[in-house]
Specification:
Blueprint (H helix, E strand, L loop, with lengths): L2 H7 L70 E2 L48 E7 L4 E6 L1 H7 L1 H21 L6 E8 L2 H10 L5 H22 L3 H13 L4 H13 L4 H11 L11 H10 L4 H15 L14 H22 L10 H4 L3 H21 L4 H8 L2 H9 L2 H19 L7 H24 L6 H12 L4 H18 L7 H12 L2 H9 L1
Parallel strand pairs: 2-4
Antiparallel strand pairs: 1-3, 2-3
Helix pairs in contact: 2-3, 4-5, 5-6, 5-7, 6-8, 9-10, 9-11, 11-13, 13-16, 14-17, 16-17, 16-18, 17-19, 18-20, 19-20
Length: about 525
């Protein structure tokens, strides 16, 4: 079989491919150049039934260059990119009207019939009776020669445009006595020429999901937008089914969410995919997810998993999180409820350490771990909750709660130094937060905290230096001094003298508050400008 018979038997229904580009005003035959003295022949006007590659009137032929590469007009592939941007005076329809404002609703009618398979090369009589010009917003143009039966069967928008064009064309042909079966449609201001072309190609694809799988999720969302705009039912349903079945990146999810705010689809078509985008149940019917997460972490016994989950949940709940917290917002009452539970567990552990705990309250899971490890775990939980409170600026009440722990203070005096220092780790977080202005509380709260936990901090400072657990000792010493200086001078006198006597006996086992002590001394015993001058120096 020779190549010419093969081309005649190929079945193509959606674009043209010429072995040799036909002659036309836009595509004149290439001839050897003639001498300049020889007169040029005038181009012959086409009749109304002719089909030029790029429709132009005879009046505009003078604006066309005398020599155009045939490959710029028609390529041997499916799509014919046209670089000529001259206006076309032949009757062309305007762009698809209001594509973005249309809403898609899947019809309940019979399935779309398959497009007819017309054999032969391109031509009006062989099935290619629509020439669609796509013009991009930023320049560029693509011309597609298509089959009107396939377009009408797949797109309600194009079906209406073709019908309107033929009505106008028939009336004009009857008056002029000529016939022109080629329907011309122009779509200007196309955002993405490639996406629009791919959407049209899907109308001629037998396996649309396979095509979508090749182009990927991000491109399929663009195809979905165009399909919804031109009312391409098969394309919309195929895109939605594909997108619902594959995972998305955060960028793709946001792009899809924006698309659903601009286009309205019926609930039956988009029920599954909207279920992945939005939580349709009301907040009242949803359990407190954040509280469940926090409770799970504070009761977790695996150290590595607990530390990993603490970092994860804190990142989700903190104020600087990039995630929306509509259903992960942790209320103050929930947070303090979990915190009270941790403090109660800490009291029980100290009672067990001092042999005063009720054996019935102990479980096998509790007694399997060493006492030091269990106490340290509860202190870590309290400090983690305290960090979340500080980030949410709701930690003021915790200062009063911690100051009123008289039972812990009493057991602190009798507990082993290697256990009791864990309590001072909580006090250290509060002192640092006050000194760095992350925690602002009233004078009574600051005074109560220092009256209760300043002396235990002096006793435990040596162990805090040896077992820092992420604590910056220099920052802690500076914070203790700064917090003391926020009290009235009379209270400062009592606490600084207590520190002075303790430091004189224990030395480096006690925090060094010399700098704050000097400031207190000057403010207390030096007056007027002399105090200001010394502090300035």
């Amino acid at each position: 079989m020779d190549s010419s018979s093969y081309h005649r038997r190929r079945h193509r229904t959606w674009c043209c491919s010429f072995a040799v580009p036909p002659s036309s005003p836009d595509n004149p035959p290439i001839k050897p150049p003639k001498p300049k003295t020889q007169a040029q022949s005038k181009p012959t006007n086409l009749s109304s039934s002719s089909v030029p590659n790029s429709p132009q009137s005879s009046k505009s032929n003078s604006r066309i260059p005398s020599r155009i590469d045939p490959r710029r007009i028609l390529s041997p592939g499916r799509v014919s990119p046209i670089e000529d941007t001259l206006p076309d005076p032949s009757p062309l329809l305007n762009s698809v009207p209001h594509l973005r404002s249309r809403s898609f609703r899947a019809p309940v009618s019979a399935p779309i019939p398959p497009p007819p398979m017309n054999a032969g090369v391109a031509g009006v009589g062989d099935g290619f009776d629509v020439r669609m010009s796509l013009r991009g917003k930023n320049g560029g143009c693509i011309v597609l020669e298509l089959n009107s039966v396939v377009l009408c069967a797949n797109s309600e928008v194009f079906a209406g445009l073709i019908a309107d064009y033929r009505k106008g064309s028939n009336s004009s042909n009857c008056s002029s006595g000529s016939s022109n079966k080629m329907c011309r449609i122009e779509v200007p201001e196309v955002d993405n020429l490639g996406v629009f072309r791919e959407t049209i190609e899907l109308m001629f694809e037998d396996d649309v999901p396979k095509k979508l799988l090749k182009i990927g999720v991000y491109r399929s969302i663009d195809v979905l937008e165009v399909s919804a705009g031109i009312m391409f039912t098969k394309g919309v349903l195929s895109c939605l089914q594909y997108l619902e079945a594959v995972p998305w990146t955060e960028e793709e999810e946001e792009k899809l969410r924006n698309l659903f705010t601009r286009f309205k689809f019926d609930d039956e078509t988009t029920r599954d995919i909207l279920g992945r985008l939005y939580l349709h149940d009301s907040e009242d019917s949803q359990p407190n997810v954040a509280r469940q997460l926090v409770c799970s972490i504070t009761t977790c016994v695996n150290a590595n998993a607990r530390n990993e989950l603490k970092s994860l949940v804190k990142g989700l709940l903190c104020k600087s999180s990039v995630y929306e917290k509509n259903h992960l917002d942790l209320s103050k009452d929930d947070l303090y409820s979990v915190c009270h539970s941790c403090i109660d567990s800490l009291i029980s552990l100290f009672e067990e350490a001092s042999n005063t705990a009720n054996p019935e309250r102990l479980t096998k899971k509790d007694t399997n771990k060493p006492m030091i490890e269990r106490i340290s775990r509860q202190v870590d939980n309290i400090n983690w909750l305290l960090e979340i409170m500080l980030d949410g600026q709701i930690a003021e009440d915790f200062v009063d709660i911690w100051s009123d722990q008289h039972q812990l203070l009493k057991m602190h005096d009798n507990a082993s130094p290697m256990v009791r220092y864990e309590l001072s780790r909580v006090s250290a977080i509060l002192f640092v937060a006050m000194a760095t202005r992350k925690l602002q509380c009233r004078l009574e709260a600051r005074s109560g905290l220092l009256q209760a936990w300043f002396a235990p901090m002096l006793l435990d400072f040596g162990w805090l230096q040896r077992c820092r657990k992420g604590l910056d000792i220099k920052v802690l010493q500076e914070a203790m001094g700064q917090t003391l200086l926020t009290l009235p001078l009379k209270q400062q006198h009592t606490l600084f003298m207590e520190w002075f006597h303790h430091f004189s006996r224990h030395g480096t086992e006690c925090p060094n508050l010399s700098k704050a002590f000097q400031i207190w001394w000057r403010r207390s015993f030096l007056r007027g400008s002399e105090t200001y001058a010394i502090e300035s120096r």
